[in-house]
Amino acid sequence: MLLFLTNLVAIIIVGGIVFVLTGVVPLRRFAEHQHRVRTAVVAVVALAVIVIGGLVINGRQITRDAFDRDEAEQVVADWLGEGSGFEVISVDVNEGEVAVVLVGPGDPPLATLLARDLGRSLGGTIRLDLQWIPRQRIVAQSDG
Predict the structure, then answer these.
(1) What secondary structure letter does DSSP report for 126?
(2) Residue 133 to residues 42, 73, 87, 98, 130, Cα–Cα distance (Å)
(3) 62 with 94: CB under 8 angstroms?
(4) Tens-digit pLDDT profile for the chain (144 aa)?
(5) CA dist., res. 85 & res. 71, Å (int)
(6) Which sequence spans correspond to the domains of the chain?
(7) Rounded to whole angstroms, what are the CA distances from 95 to 43, 51, 66, 121?
């Protein structure tokens, strides 16, 4: 919806400018209908302010989610520790929920410890969705 409104405002503004610059709507028509033009401009500006507000709010949320994801990735790496044999496939953070997907040998460390660490790091109560895929690896070499 926000993308649609952004495009709508841009099309209306650019369309109005193009109509005036190309002479499709002569300047004298603007002078004759100042009240209508003023009303239309106020409406477009109001819509533009609403759209800009939505874009700012959306941008803040995206930025906050990116910072939270980076923080969560670091917490997961610390929780796993060096040499655990686990590989982090993905870490997703969305409004108090953290989803982590791992691949590795055996079982990972306790999930409750990770949930606690994420709650401390991100602030607030965190719901952790931890998935791991057991991986076994065999390396063989042929004879000469």
Answers:
(1) -
(2) 57, 18, 10, 17, 10
(3) no
(4) 888 989 999 999 998 888 888 888 777 877 788 888 889 889 999 999 999 999 999 999 889 889 999 999 999 999 998 888 899 999 999 888 999 999 998 889 999 999 999 999 998 899 999 999 998 888 899 887
(5) 21
(6) 2-62, 74-134
(7) 34, 23, 12, 14
Handedness of CA 54, 55, 56, 58 (dihedral sign): positive
Q: Name 84's bridge partners.
A: none
CA-nearest of 62, 131, 78, 73 to 102 is 131
d(CA 76, CA 140): 32
